[in-house]
Fold Beta-Casp domain-containing protein.
Amino acid sequence: MHKVQSVKYGEEVCFNGIFMLKASSSGLELGNSTWTIQSPRASITYLPSSVFVSAHALDFDYSSLKENDVILFSDFSSLNDTDEDNEKLNEHSMDETDSSLCRYSVFRDDGADADERVPFVCNNDDITEEIERISFICSCIFGAVKSGGSVLIPIGRLGVILLLLELISEMLHSSSLKVPIFVISETAEEIFAFTNTLPEWLCKSRQEKLFAGEALFGHVELLKEGKLFLFPHLHSKGLLAAWKEPCIVLCPHWSLRLGPAVHLLRRWHADKRCLLVVEQGNGAELSLKPFMPLAIQVLECSFLSGVRAGKIDPLLGVLKPKFVMLPEGLKSRCSIKGVPWSFLYYSKGKTIELSNLREDIEVHLATDVAFRLQPRQLNETTAVARLRTKLLVSNGRYQLASAEKQPDQSKR
């Protein structure tokens, strides 16, 4: 861990003197970041799985990503989009003024400067669908518990867990049900404490709750009321005393091959009143084979996990890169007609060479060197001067510094 350096939101850090790195919110989870890497010769955007608008994390930050030379697009979630979503991709123009782009984003003055405009996603369809999906899961949980069954949720997505607990909290408050909720994980206490220590990573509505002195998430009230219990292990002291069925349990691991989920599923797999909630795409059918035959109800859910294929083109139209590096799997899904940037496609073990991104190099002249210059005028617009310097690289910039130490004037 001595080689790991933590970085605050929006903080610029220098690596090896030549690279400046900056983390911005990707919108997917608390702390999940897009990265801008600046050097004297190029600027690179690393774009992982991202969400434009989030119900818990700070929204996707466009400002630091615009007009960088290269975008390394590593959001693989769109590879799982339906064919219908993928067919929409070629229908969108790259022009910001085109109505198809306005369908997804709009430039709105943020009030700081009339000339500075930050793109916002104009519709919240994705996050609305996400909340509706989680509400449906909660209704299924409510039905299972009401029938006397317990619910097992081996999902590791923090944002999904927070929203689930929030909606479950509302469900319990509006009903007469008294059902204990257990989060069984070695990192449970640390993770829930983590949600209260990073206000800069929260979405605007959560930040407003913070300033108003309200609880940021629904699990806070559940903990105060003694309805939510956090334990590191199934054999933890106090768990047996608090245990009561039916109950709701959130625990690792989604693979159903390790962790508390294995033992609990063996306990409940033959009870048709119980419910298992798993994430789609994680090989649920294969994961469940050791527990066959199953009587437990199984609910497979997909959650918003990145940029949809139909929104890649509008996003690139906003960011305006020179080169876009995409996974090979997206090669057939991206429109390349009439766009001002070039596409490159990468795969595992493949080396990609980029042409020279910047013909001109910006060099900064040290102040002491500049004062010693004795320029000679060649014509009205041009002057030349001799200088002896050394070329340094510091904080991502080339600098001409004095080549030798000047004699101390006080000793003359």
Summary: Residues 170 and 310 are 34 Å apart (CA to CA).
